[in-house]
Design goal:
With 261 residues, this protein is α/β, with parallel strands linked by helices. It has one domain (12-256): TIM Barrel (Alpha-Beta Barrel). 33% of the residues lie in helices and 15% in strands. The chain has helices at residues 25-34, 57-63, 81-90, 105-114, 160-176, 195-201, 210-213, 223-234, 249-256; strands at residues 12-15, 40-45, 71-76, 94-97, 118-123, 141-145, 183-187, 205-208. Helix 2 packs parallel to helix 3 and helix 6 (195-201) crosses helix 8. The longest helix has 17 residues, at 160-176. The chain is globular and about 50 Å long. The relative contact order is 0.15.
Length: 261
């Protein structure tokens, strides 16, 4: 694994605070870290680019002292540049935005890096992959939306699987030609029953909101559901698509030989 990509394991679980208890965000991020989450995903909505309103930089700054986990900020805002600076100064580690929301994509990506953060682009379900062709060298992360952005709790769009596979091929080719590692993240409708299929398609990092926060442990932590998500990726969870049997040798090969370890 590239040491510049801070993940605890081959696959990254990034619970989204959009589904957390907003009155207890400090407690929630501490519980996520204690429960084995890899990143904390912060969905930022402006009621302009998307029809909802969520967090600003002050909230990011307020939760920063409560966790050592990377804060993965997803900007669903337009314009983006002023908020890139605001969230970087508030303690974000990763910042991603939608290409439709920037007048100059390359400049916005460089701005993120100039602030010392990892840079990402977010593609909506209908946004084509060719928009990535001339900015791969600027990217540390590509986030594929598997729902239309703006609301939590939506259902995963099945057509996203083919798009993940196509993007995985693009990233692998880029790396084979000497490019740096790029994380392939997926966000929207991810749950125990479909996370393995998404992993096999080529995803590295999984944003899960309602799937995590709707299943707390008795003590208010999320150890069990995060454990179940990891087991589902490996094909060992009883509700996984293969019926809970151990993965076949071919399945193990597919999950371990993709160059993302």
């Amino acid at each position: 694994m590239d040491s510049s990509i801070p993940m605890k394991s081959r696959y990254c679980i990034a619970p989204s605070l959009l589904s957390a208890d907003f009155a207890r965000l400090g407690d929630e991020v501490r519980a996520l870290e204690a429960s084995g989450a890899d990143w904390v995903h912060v969905d930022v909505m402006d009621n302009h680019y998307v029809p909802n309103l969520s967090f600003g930089p002050m909230v990011c700054k307020a939760i920063r002292p409560h966790t050592r986990l990377p804060l993965d900020v997803h900007l669903m805002v337009k314009p983006v540049d002023a908020l890139i600076s605001g969230f970087a100064q508030a303690g974000a580690d990763w910042i991603s935005f939608h290409p439709e929301a920037s007048e100059h994509i390359d400049r916005s990506l460089q701005l993120i890096r100039d602030h010392g953060c990892k840079a990402g682009l977010v593609l909506n379900p209908a946004t084509p992959l060719h928009l990535l062709d001339f900015v791969m060298h600027r990217l540390d992360l590509i986030l594929l939306m598997s729902v239309n952005p703006g609301f939590g709790g939506q259902q995963f769009l099945p057509a996203t699987i083919a798009k993940i596979q196509a993007l995985r091929s693009m990233i692998d080719q880029y790396q084979a030609e000497g490019g740096h590692r790029i994380v392939l993240q997926v966000d929207g409708g991810i749950k125990i029953d479909n996370i393995r299929e998404i992993a096999l398609a080529g995803a590295d990092c999984f944003v899960a909101g309602s799937a995590v926060f709707s299943s707390p442990d008795p003590d208010g932590h999320y150890r069990q559901v995060i454990k179940q998500l990891r087991q589902a990726i490996d094909g060992t969870h009883e509700h996984s698509p293969n019926g809970g049997n151990a993965p076949s040798p071919d399945g193990v090969h597919a999950l371990s030989s993709n160059g993302r370890v």
